[in-house]
């Protein structure tokens, strides 16, 4: 595959890497055991379909611990994209870029979680790299999700989901610096130990604010029983709601835009890292990390529509009525009440940021599909993830299939140079991808 080389370093440099990948017709859909692969089988255009019937029994393989070594990006390394697309280095030198979002005026907001700040990248019309790089706000507490409110072309607020709160900044289109101190909207979210990321979106009618909160532990360790018993707890709380240290966790929470009237919107979602609202239908979606320690191919991560009042299984069940062995016999009342997620992903892929393609520069069949960033495995003997996938929809409904779209972040069995986190659609229709291994953002466009 021909690749051009870097001509410099830093934010001002563009790496043009038009990747030529030959495809003789459509790729077959990998199903069943064939769908369980590793990084060596990943390539743009590979399509997988994993169903609940394909899952192995618990303990079919041992649980592995194989953390990657994150290396500097080799000079010859670049992401790979399907034929007909090209990938360019949009920005570098960033400090652990996580979620990225496109403002209504086209500015790219980059959340540097570990540094507690938000950065703005602005490109001139037709440019493929940022001409402006400004820090918008600092002093935040592990920020992750951001959202503009109200919807439309003229938002008045920028909301930020810290690990322990939701705050907002007064906002006007074109702001490069926060105009003042943030206003606290939700003073206390469940504490940031365990899973610390919080994403945030607004429903299309602007009446509700949704915030995702991951579990404190892996699979409800030490959860025990509620003080007054399961029956009393279930009568007084939402379906599948957990208690103790897991209260209001492994869930999507709903609030009014002013932070009032907190409710559980959906439960049993171990770690909904990425939240997104599907254009047209207004349906909330989650990009979800499932539990570890159950073997190479359990439990599948997933991307799914989120139905209000639904329970997705954690920690007692997974992918329908499959009982977690660690909770055998604990909640028979929930077995037939578990909502099965829409799109099952290779277990331990670590699915993070999520966006829907709303641009017009990609081929028509991409419009309305979703893209999710797979941060990559540590709990699998053969490495998986480390890519961006396309979630295929038909008439707005997920087919269950997903396709490798951006790959090439892995150097070898033990080393990687990139860990994708955020995805957003730029105003010109390009797809932007952040990765926090080397602090870069990549731009995918038509060749």
TrEMBL record:
Residues 79-292, 336-446 form the Pyrroloquinoline quinone-dependent pyranose dehydrogenase beta-propeller domain. Pfam families: TrAA12 (PF22807). Residues 51-73 are annotated as: Disordered. SUPFAM superfamilies: Soluble quinoprotein glucose dehydrogenase (SSF50952). This is Sorbosone dehydrogenase family protein. It comes from Bradyrhizobium brasilense.
């Amino acid at each position: 595959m021909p690749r051009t080389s870097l001509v410099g370093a830093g934010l001002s440099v563009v790496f043009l890497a038009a990747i030529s990948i030959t495809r003789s017709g459509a790729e077959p859909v990998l199903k069943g055991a064939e769908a369980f692969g590793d990084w060596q089988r990943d390539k743009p255009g590979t399509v997988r379909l994993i169903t609940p019937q394909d899952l192995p029994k618990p303990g079919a393989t041992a649980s592995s611990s194989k953390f990657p070594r994150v290396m500097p990006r080799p000079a010859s390394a670049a992401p790979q994209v399907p034929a007909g697309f090209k990938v360019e280095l949009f920005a570098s030198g960033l400090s652990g870029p996580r979620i990225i979002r496109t403002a209504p005026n086209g500015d790219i907001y980059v959340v540097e979680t570990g540094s507690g700040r938000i950065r703005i990248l602005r490109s001139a019309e037709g440019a493929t790299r940022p001409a402006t790089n400004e820090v918008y706000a600092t002093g935040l507490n592990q920020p992750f999700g951001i959202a503009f409110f109200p919807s439309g072309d003229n938002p008045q607020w920028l909301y930020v989901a810290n690990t322990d709160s939701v705050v907002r900044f007064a906002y006007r289109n074109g702001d490069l610096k926060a105009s003042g101190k943030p206003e606290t909207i939700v003073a206390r979210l469940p504490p940031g130990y365990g899973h610390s990321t919080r994403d945030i979106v607004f429903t299309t009618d602007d009446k509700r604010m949704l915030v995702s909160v991951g579990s404190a532990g892996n699979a409800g360790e030490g959860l025990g029983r509620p003080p007054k018993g399961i029956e009393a707890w279930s009568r007084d709380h939402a379906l599948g709601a957990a208690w103790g240290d897991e209260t209001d966790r492994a869930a999507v929470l709903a609030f009014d835009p002013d932070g009032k009237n907190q409710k559980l919107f959906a439960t049993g979602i171990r770690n909904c890292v990425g939240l997104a609202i599907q254009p047209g239908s207004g349906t909330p979606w989650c990009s979800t990390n499932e539990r570890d320690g159950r073997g190479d191919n359990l439990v599948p991560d997933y991307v799914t529509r989120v139905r209000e009042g639904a329970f997705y299984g954690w920690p007692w069940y997974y992918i329908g009525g499959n009982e977690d062995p660690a909770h055998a016999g604990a909640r028979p009342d929930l077995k037939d009440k578990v909502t099965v997620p829409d799109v099952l992903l290779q277990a331990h892929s670590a699915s993070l940021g999520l966006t829907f393609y709303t641009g017009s520069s990609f081929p028509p069949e991409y419009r309305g599909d979703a893209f999710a960033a797979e941060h990559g495995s540590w709990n699998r003997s053969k490495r998986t993830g480390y890519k961006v996938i396309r979630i295929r929809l038909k008439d707005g409904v997920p087919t269950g299939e997903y396709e490798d779209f951006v790959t090439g972040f892995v150097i070898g069995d033990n080393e990687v140079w990139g860990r994708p986190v955020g995805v957003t659609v730029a105003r010109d229709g390009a797809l932007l991808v952040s990765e926090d291994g080397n602090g870069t953002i990549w731009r995918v466009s038509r060749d």
